[in-house]
Automatic annotation (TrEMBL):
Name of encoding gene: edd
The protein's name: Phosphogluconate dehydratase
Annotated GO CC locations: cytosol
Organism: Qipengyuania marisflavi
Stated family: Belongs to the IlvD/Edd family.
Cofactor(s) essential for the protein: [4Fe-4S] cluster
Amino acid sequence: MSKSLNDTIHRVTQRVIDNSRDRRAAYLALTDREAERQVDRYGLSCSNLAHAFAGAEDDQAAIKAAGGPNLGIVTAYNDMLSAHQPYHRYPERMKIWAREVGATVQVAGGTPAMCDGVTQGQDGMELSLFSRDAIALSTVVALSHAMFNGVALLGICDKIVPGLLMGALRFGHLPAIFVPSGPMGTGISNAEKQRVRQLYAEGKVGREELLASESASYHSPGTCTFYGTANSNQMMMEMMGLHVPGAAFVPPGAKLRQELTRSATHRLAAIGKDGGDFRPLARVVDEKAIINAAIGLLATGGSTNHAIHLPAMARSAGIAFDWSDLAELSSAVPLIARVYPNGAGDVNHFHDAGGMGFVIGALLDEGLAHADILTVWDGGFAAYSREPGMEDDTLTWRDPGPSGDAEMLRPAAEPFQPDGGMRLVEGNLGRACFKASAVGEERYTVEAPARVFENQSSVNEAFTRGELDQDVIVVVRFQGPRANGMPELHKLTPALGVLQDRGYRVALVTDGRMSGASGKVPAAIHCTPEALGGGPLARLRDGDIIRLCAKTGTLTTPADLAARDPAPDPRPDMGMGRELFAMFRANADGAEQGASSMLAMAGL
């Protein structure tokens, strides 16, 4: 028998409900009005409707007759992004599967879809975070045609899932299901990949050896297999009940993957307003669903990027959620999964060991997740504690049983560590996030002199010159949302890892982001307020002593910052289209609020 809900989770949930009351009520009133207005194809003029089904070919007659639901696909397909390459054939297959249940499907629109793996350390990474707002706006444009009774959201990777959800929530009167495509097969071991990266950082291997290693890791269609932001997205969609149960980590091309997508199409047709089981997105994504997403993030050691994305997604549904909520939940939620970079195995090993079915079952058994959320699937959240499979040609679900690998997955009563490892650190240098689950406890506290930089390249140049061979806290500032779009600082990881392996006490403090796969080096990231405009990091100087402690939640310096003038704000770089994103940078709010200009300007 499952335990009653944990007291801390209950308290945080109630605080989020109380803090969200007015904003959430206004949001639900909006979606209720939209539902009552019948904003769909039944209310369009003949000219409007004729334009909308002119290209529908075999489905023209059915759309014209309005005899069944018309489902809109918003797709982030491109074949440069490995995780999204399998989406190429999804729309034509979903059209066929919709006809099986008297429904029709149209591609409502597409969204941009950046690959952060391609843009890491490059100029294009400065567009990455704000691509989330562009994706949300593209989703709104796609759904503005008022043709649809439900929404299938085809997206997986870093900013794409949050952006799709943020846009779709403005059409929260419609049901919506996320349809993933699954991870690529496992390549070389993650330990080997990291070994070669660090050898390259030290100049001990060349570009040819590095490229061969990377190509053996990222080698085929599907999501990258480390547990970064993309795979954390899939975990959260399961925790929020927005997938067909167990859909997250089934590989592309498998018969099971095809049947899960077919099932998603059928289910979306069944949960519309006229289907007798109405499940609009606005009611599925509520305060408890957001809390469940945060719990899943903590229990599995997921991406630090979601400290930014979760508040933004919550705001889009009229919900107030911040880092204090996340940190308090972390104190109650144990770490029950170790997936690379927090462990040796990747998401394929995680899935084979029991995956999301095991995780959700373990959390529910210990009263560590809300069991009573409304999901897109029949059977409530408990249905997500089962794993999908095929019996003959039939899609079925079964109990995943005990963990298939105790080094990968453990029961909540026997965790890897008693807390979720996402700490809030704060002090006179601001508020920041510290991902403790990826860092050895002996490194939770670092006190050392600062070396202050304003970009990644300068850090790596100083490393190459040997200037960082000491106990050091590397500060990389002017990397916040208003300064340059808050890029991930992925190029820092090998150099800092080498310094740590040499025996130095090393840490990073930045108002930028680290990769969703950030690893073993202690880091205070997303520091807010950001340096631009005179934030505390802008007043630091080389040699200032900084204390970073995940145990006490401390991010401080004894330096008299108030007595100093801040470093001058840098001019934004041009090229790669960055100048066109000036409106996003100028209007963005802080990282803890979600770093969104779209939400800030909309007053949400």
